[in-house]
Design a protein that fits this description.
Distance between the termini: 32 Å
Helix content: over 70%
Radius of gyration: 18 Å
Largest sheet: none
Number of helices: 8
Strand content: under 5%
Structural class: mainly alpha
Order of helices and strands: HHHHHHHH
C-alpha cells in the first residue's frame, strides 16, 4: 500500500517516465537482497530455539550480509555509468544514474532492516517489527510529498534512504534495550562503506553527476 502510494505521488508530481526511472534504479539495487533474506531466514529458526546465541548469530549474519551488500553496492557505484549505458542506453542511463546512486547508498540499511525484523520476530517482539515496517512506509510517503516535486525520481530514492535509515536507528534502540546486542561489526562495515564513497566523490575520482 505504501509502495503504491509513493509511486502515485511521484507520478502526480512528475512526468510518468520518472516512475520508470525510479523503478529501474530500485530493481537494479535490489538484485542482491534475496541472498540477504536467505541469511536472515536461516538464522530465524535457530534463534527461536536458542536466543542466548543472538550475539553470535548477529555478528556472523550481519557481517556476512554487509560484506555482500557493500561489495555489490561499491561495484555498482564505481561502474554505474558503464553498467547503465550498457544495459539501458545513454538516455536512460543519464536519467537513472542519481536515483540508482541513492538507492545503492540505502541498500545496507534495507538489508539490515530485513535482519532486524527477523531478530525482533525471533525474540517475540513482533509489535516492534510492525512499527518498523509502518515507520518505513510512512516516512517514504511523507518525504515523497516533499521531495518529488523538486527532485523527481532522485527525491523518491532519497525518501527510501531516509525511511530505512530511520528504521535502523529505531531497531538499534529496541534491540539494545531488549538484549544489549553488539552492533559494532555490521555498523563498522557500513561506516567504512559510506566513508569510502564520500572520499571517492569529494576527491574528484568520479564522473557522477
Amino acid at each position: 500500500l505504501f509502495t503504491i502510494g509513493s509511486r502515485y505521488i511521484l507520478a502526480s508530481n512528475q512526468p510518468i517516465e520518472q516512475v520508470g526511472f525510479f523503478e529501474l534504479s530500485s530493481s537494479i539495487s535490489n538484485v542482491v537482497l534475496p541472498l540477504v533474506s536467505v541469511f536472515a531466514l536461516v538464522m530465524g529458526p535457530k534463534l527461536v530455539r536458542d536466543t542466548s546465541r543472538i550475539d553470535a548469530y548477529y555478528r556472523k549474519v550481519g557481517s556476512g550480509s554487509m560484506l555482500l551488500v557493500t561489495g555489490f553496492s561499491l561495484t555498482m557505484l564505481l561502474f554505474n555509468e558503464f553498467i547503465l549505458r550498457t544495459l539501458l542506453g545513454r538516455e536512460f542511463a543519464l536519467q537513472t544514474s542519481w536515483p540508482l546512486i541513492i538507492m545503492l547508498l540505502a541498500l545496507p540499511f534495507v538489508a539490515l532492516f530485513t535482519l532486524h525484523t527477523t531478530l525482533l520476530s525471533s525474540l517475540r517482539l513482533t509489535r516492534w517489527a510492525a512499527v518498523l515496517l509502518l515507520g518505513v512506509g510512512l516516512t517514504e510517503v511523507l518525504l515523497n510529498v516533499v521531495l518529488t516535486p523538486t527532485y523527481s525520481a532522485a527525491g523518491a530514492a532519497a525518501s527510501v534512504f531516509a525511511g530505512y535509515a530511520l528504521a535502523y536507528v529505531l531497531a538499534v534502540a529496541v534491540l539494545w534495550r531488549a538484549c544489549r546486542l553488539d552492533f559494532a561489526a555490521p555498523l563498522k562495515q557500513v561506516g567504512l562503506f559510506l566513508a569510502f564513497l564520500l572520499a571517492y566523490y569529494f576527491g574528484g575520482f568520479t564522473s557522477w553527476p
